[in-house]
Amino acid sequence: MSDQAATLRGMVGQHHHYAKVVTFASGKGGVGKSNIIVNVAIALAGLDLKIALFDMDLGLANIDILLGMTPHHNLSHVMAGQKSLTDIILPGPNNVMIIPGASGVSRLANLKEQERATLIESFAEIEARADLLLVDTGAGISDNVLQFALASQVLVVVTTPEPTARMDAYALIKTVHRMSEGALPIQVIVNGVASKSEAEQVFQSLLAVCERHLSNHPQFLGFVPQDPAIPKAVKKRRPFLLNNPGSPAARAVVDLAAEMRRVLLPTGSNAAAPRVANSFFARLFSLFSSRSPQ
Ligand SMILES: Nc1ncnc2c1ncn2[C@@H]1O[C@H](COP(=O)(O)OP(=O)(O)OP(=O)(O)O)[C@@H](O)[C@H]1O
Ligand SMILES: [Mg+2]
């Protein structure tokens, strides 16, 4: 963000620009979403972008664990009025703003009108400060995951070459395609491959099924190779990008970040990037209201 843009924004006193929101999901659990999102966030922030990372995973392998952090508060404390949103944000490497969602996320749909308004307003501030808001989701195709995906500008589907992961990736794309009537752009990352050509093969077969059955055309965002540097870094609770920058996985994540910037923020600049008119949380809550839970 340039100083001038920040000043102008301050002068008008309004949030005219919001971060682009990119939700990572997979269907099948354990395919590497959290590891990829954390490291790609750090790499994107290294490209001089302001990155916020929202952890809505309710599972165990949470972002804070991967970063060796111990958040004492999360979104549920914000909703209870005990903390402000800025109180719960953790500063990650390269100033990535980590927002621990944890147990708060499951209560989002049941907030009172006033609580919603407060949350929308405080999130809007974060969204106005960031270029990208990356959202990590847990395993499964739950209502929460779908609503987060539908409120985003882009869905990143992570799969591995395993048939089960590919089936779930397709099931996720199919559901999101139907619910968004084909309007949500979908990008695919193939994780845990032996080579780039294996990743391309996996993507091509997924693309073929999506085109044949859905007339949907997901795009190939990139891949991360199978790499012992990842579990090694997880054990140390350090992002592999920083723990072992020369590793194949780290280099792949740097490429992924460059590709994400190219695809998502074509100008590469905060001020000129095309933005949406309202905030992610405003969209999220309007989805809660318009769709009754099954
Ligand atoms: N490219 C890779 N090479 C080697 N190991 C990997 C790779 N990607 C992920 N892993 C390992 O797979 C495990 C699961 O990764 P991760 O927690 O990021 O998956 P996830 O999709 O976020 O899981 P969940 O669905 O439970 O949230 C981790 O222990 C990690 O070490
Ligand atoms: Mg995860």
What does this structure look like?
This protein is an alpha/beta fold and 294 residues long. It has a domain at 16-155 and 231-288: Rossmann fold. The chain contains 13 helices and 8 strands. It has helices at residues 3-12, 33-45, 63-66, 75-79, 85-88, 113-129, 143-150, 163-180, 196-214, 229-236, 240-243, 248-264, 280-290; strands at residues 20-25, 51-55, 90-91, 97-100, 132-136, 154-159, 186-193, 219-225. An 8-stranded mixed sheet has the order 3-4-2-5-1-6-7-8, sandwiched between helices. α6 runs antiparallel to α13 and α8 (163-180) packs across α9 (196-214). It is globular, with a radius of gyration of 18 Å. The termini are far apart. The model is unreliable at 8-13 and 268-274 (pLDDT under 50). The structure holds adenosine-5'-triphosphate and magnesium ion (MG).
The span between the termini is 41 Å
- Average pLDDT works out at 88
The CATH architecture assignment of one domain turns out to be 3-Layer(aba) Sandwich
CATH superfamily of one domain: P-loop containing nucleotide triphosphate hydrolases
The secondary-structure class comes to alpha/beta
**What is the H-and-E element order?**
HEHEHHHEEHEHEHEHEHHHH
Count of β-strands: 8
- The low-pLDDT segments are 8-13, 268-274
CATH topology title of one domain: Rossmann fold
CATH class of one domain: Alpha Beta
* Percent range of helical residues: 40-55%
- Strands of the largest sheet, in order across it? 3-4-2-5-1-6-7-8
Tally of helical segments: 13
The dominant shape is globular
Strand content: 5-15%
Radius of gyration: 18 Å
Q: What bound compounds does this protein have? A: adenosine-5'-triphosphate, magnesium ion
For the biggest sheet, the summary is: 8 strands, mixed
